[in-house]
Amino acid sequence: MSNVFSFSGTVGSDAVVRYLPSGQAVLNVSVANNVGFSDKQQTLWIRVVVWGKRAESNLKTFLVKGQQVFVSGELTMSEYKANDGTMKTSLELNANILDLVGKRNDSAGYAGQSSGYDAPAPASNYAPQPQTYQPPPAPAYQQPPAQNYAPPPAPNYAPQQAPRPATTPSFDAPYDDDIPF
């Protein structure tokens, strides 16, 4: 693949899984990517498409609005005529890699589920509470009941013997001193 586009962005709306008449699953999600800087910054919306088994997986439950993602794949651009008569450009990325990066912006949980985390109220709503130290109660130790325990017998492994060569080389033979290094 020669046309590879990689970027990180924020999911703009919850992912949707549809099935083609052939039975193949297609996951669609819109991802926003900010390009430029300061007053020249603009948001680029890219439709990301995931096909097949990955689209059928539980990936849909994690691709919810506000989730940070890293996406890489083949980018295609198409032009169309909008209802007001102007020409618009649409970017679509056929994703090979789609990774979750970081946390969501809110604590509502994935796919409408509660995350189990309750954020504390602002500090202005807290009234100071006097703190007093109370030592924890002393633990009541009990002797564990006696058990008849015998360790398992040690395995009887016979030591392995290395195979012996049929003939022993002779080191008494003359050797050549002229080794080029």
What would you say the CATH architecture of the domain at 4-108 is?
A: Beta Barrel
Helix content: under 10%
Report strand order across the widest sheet: 1-3-4-6-5
For this structure, what is the CATH homologous superfamily of the domain at 4-108?
Nucleic acid-binding proteins
Largest sheet: 5 strands, mixed, barrel
Number of strands: 6
Structural class: mainly beta
Mean pLDDT: 76
| CATH hierarchy, class of the domain at 4-108 | Mainly Beta
Helical region count? 2
Q: CATH topology of the domain at 4-108, what is it called?
A: OB fold (Dihydrolipoamide Acetyltransferase, E2P)
Walk me through the structure.
- The chain has a domain of 105 residues: Nucleic acid-binding proteins (OB fold (Dihydrolipoamide Acetyltransferase, E2P)).
- Strand 5 and strand 6 form a beta hairpin.
- Helices cover 4% and strands 34% of the residues.
- It is built from 2 helices and 6 strands; from the N terminus they run ββββααββ.
- The protein has a 5-stranded mixed β-barrel.
- About 11% of the residues have low confidence.
- It is mainly beta and 181 residues long.
